[in-house]
Amino acid sequence: MTNDVDTLATALYATTDDMLKEHSDLAPWRPPVGITPRLSDAELVTLATMQAILGYTFEAKWLRHARAHLRHLFPYLPQQPGYNKRLRKAAGLMRSVNRILATTTSVWSETYGSWTPPRWNAAAPARPSLTSWQPNANFCESAPDRLSSATRTTSAVVSNANCPSMESSCCGLPVR
Fold first, then answer.
1. Is residue 93 part of a domain?
2. What per-residue confidence (pLDDT) applies to 115?
3. Range with the lowest mean pLDDT among 5-19, 21-35, 42-56, 65-79?
4. Phi, psi of 68, rounded to the nearest 5 degrees
5. Based on the structure, what is the number of domains in the chain?
6. Which of 7, 39, 115, 162 has a CA between 20 and 30 Å from the CA of residue 45?
7. pLDDT digits over 94-116, tens only?
8. Residue 61 domain-assigned?
9. Is 61 left (phi over 0), alpha (psi -120 to 50) or beta?
10. Residues 24, 90: one domain?
């Protein structure tokens, strides 16, 4: 493996481990007495994040790759069922750590820091409000009576441009 992947894994592990020490409430609860896991939570988060970054969608393939190329970084790698079980139980931890990592890196501030949601164009014509639409007895012939009222309303809005009479009362909607 290249040094870039090793450097990424080391930096990710160190950052995650420090974060879990600062925010101990993120880690899953464990009893004070008992068997400690052979793979730490920081190592699990690092492995799962590396799996996503490197594009491995199958856990078995990822673990084979990690055993072949990342064994010097992770002294213990679980088998696929144990890895899957730990990942499922640590879903909340993964979400929290990935959110914190994403918002504290420069990528987040460069990409999303100054982002504002798009606004409606004030010069665009107003859309007809279907909530304020009152049914009219003079439906257009293109909206047959067998349709439900919601479907008739939708059909009337869509077919208003093709209405043969083009009157303001046709379909119950104003004509542009």
1. yes
2. 56
3. 21-35
4. -80, -35
5. 2
6. 115
7. 999 988 888 887 765 665 555 55
8. yes
9. alpha
10. yes
Cα separation, 108 vs 126, whole angstroms: 35
Q: Please tell me the distance from the alpha carbon of residue 20 to that of residue 18, in angstroms, as a whole number.
A: 5
Of 111, 146, 166, which residue is a domain's last? Answer: 111
- In this prediction the pTM is 0.60
DSSP H helices in the chain: 3-22, 41-54, 59-69, 80-89, 91-104, 106-111, 149-159
Give domain status of residue 156, yes or no: yes
pLDDT in tens, 22-55: 988 888 888 889 888 999 999 999 999 999 999 9
For tokens 């793979």, the residue is 39
**Statement to judge: residues 22 and 107 lie in one domain:** yes
Domain that holds residue 29: 3-111
Q: Please check whether residue 54 lies inside any domain of the structure.
A: yes
